[in-house]
Amino acid sequence: MSHFLMPTIDIYNLENYTFGTKDAQHEKDKSVPERLARMKDKYFKEGMRRSVDCILLVHQHGHPHILLLQIGNNQKGFFKLPGGRCRPGESEADCIKRKLTKRLAPPNAKEYQPDWEVGECVSVWYRPNFETLFYPYTPPHITKPKECKKLYVIPLPEKCMFAVPRNFHFLAVPLFELYDNSKRYGPIISSIPQVLSHFNFNQL
Q: Is pLDDT of 1 > 50?
């Protein structure tokens, strides 16, 4: 009888990492309708939008945590994974490194820039229409989804320095807090505990 060998991810204590701030980075759009309108315009120019989201793992108090960006206050804040849109012709790996560097790396300090490692793609989501809804599959009646979003695990080095834009909060949220909590975190982030369930976590 064969046994499934689960892949292992090394994760380090949150205390290993240094967190600082840098200049604010504002969203290009002031509202969701503006964002969807811009997406529609780009779709007709460039085709389906490709985007990547990054899962950064640490541990604290013996539990795996995910690093999330939060915009706004604790009660009504919007949570998101680091990442964003791939440029036309840009590989997903290059996009991940560019987006993580822009959002989280210390500015003007190459010696402190993390050497981002791109791990496994663990989840794929599709936006069928120019709406906020995503699905972890392409609905049967949709022949041309408007966006494909892929979630990648990004193994962190043992130590590194993060610099977070001043208008964001950078939070370590335990996996058990995300599970079945789409009301708070949305369907994509709340699905992460399930998509990571085939990994072993080696807490160092």
A: no
Q: All domains of the chain, ordered by start, with CATH?
A: 24-195 (3.90.79.10)
Q: Nearest Cα to 100, choosing from 82, 88, 115, 87?
A: 82
Which segments of 101-180 are extended strands (E)?
Answer: 121-127, 147-153, 161-165, 169-174
Q: Read off the amino acid at residue 18.
A: T
Closest CA to 11 of 144, 156, 194, 179: 156
pTM for this one? 0.92
At 35, phi and psi to the nearest 5? -65, -45
60: left (phi over 0), alpha (psi -120 to 50) or beta: beta
pLDDT-based confidence at 63, cuts 50/70/90?
A: very high
Q: What is the C-alpha separation between 70 and 78, in angstroms, rounded?
A: 5
